[in-house]
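If you are new to this repository, start here. Below is one unmodified record pulled from the training split, so you can see the exact layout before writing a loader.
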Amino acid sequence: MFRNRGEGHLAVSRQFRTDLDYVELGPNPELIAPGLGAGLDSFAKPNDEKQPPRSVARRLVREATPGAPRARGFNAVLTAYEATLESTPAPAADALDVAPLPLDRLPGRSWLDLAIIEGVYRHGVYWHAERALEAVRSALICGPVTLRDLELAFADREQAQRAIRRLVAAAAERPGQFDAWLKGVREHSFLALLAGTGLRATQRAEAAEQARRLYCALLWKAYLGMARCYGALMFLAYIDLCLHSERAPDEGERWLFRQRHFPQVCLGLPLAFFPRAQLRWIIRLLTRRWREWDAEPASHDRVTDMLGLFGQLVRARRDADRRAKPAGPSAAPAEVIESVAAADVSQAALADDEEDGLLITSRFCPRCHAPLELSGGDVGRAGEALRFNAYCDGCIVERTYRLRPADFGSTTEPA
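And here is the target side for that same chain:
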């Protein structure tokens, strides 16, 4: 499961590079980035309908991030979030009261966790472990990952154990085909985990919701299990570094090694477990603390808060994408067509095979039904077919697509 963590719709890979990623367009455009723009009376302007979508999005982001007037998209929003988090004072700490978090008392843990997890020794301030881990989960898994969801996932212990046995059996019986088997399970709403593929109507929907909740809970356990294994491996490397190096590392070098390679309390996982989409939101906060030799764990909790904001942003973006599904053929991708018309296009004939682009009839990927995001690059046209590059959030890949405007909207949109 850990090997497949980046597959499917539950994975979070959107980079949020441009201003458009933070705005929900429509009759009344609004910013979807949580915590930004709350003081503005109205986002809508009388001439917004006449302006290109990128101009509207740029105005909204600029108004909501006055502290970064020249920044755009990701840099503007990240700068605003960092300023908000850094302006919040860290909890007061008593220098005489330092003790480790009692992680070794948790089920399945031991004294080893106190050695391989960085940041367990904290001053006498309260640490909300459940809220911190929920923030990390929300940044990595776009699914039901709240504490309440985890409780519901294992409410029926027999059901959960049967699902786990199915996963173990699939991995043992066909180890070389497990990824393909899991892909099929994922594409059918994880119903196979609960033997619910034959259910209908309401029962099927309820079973799919529970199966998705259970899969997310098991995936998070896979994250934690692999983090513990990785931490033990890095602990051995750390011992070798300290005892067998030609030059013994000083205290600062040892601390930086632990920061970069050990599981972190503020992250719940090692830094290496975070893909680019998540890492780019927290690396500036981390490097700033590394440069300042800030070893106070309470100040590192702002990194956890940043992951929580990113998790909220991911869900807000996906909700906005669902609401933006076109109602019919009239919702043609005007931005794509305008880009093609303005480009120096090629007149070479396009074949019907996928080598020249995957044929689409709507703004959704024909393979996974996730909304497509125009990513630029070469744009061409041959006859009535338009050829463009787009990013699919469901397939987690950028590929070339083909579109015939006459056929657009001829198929039923995914539910």
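Two things worth knowing about this chain: The longest helix spans residues 201-244. The longest strand covers residues 372-382.
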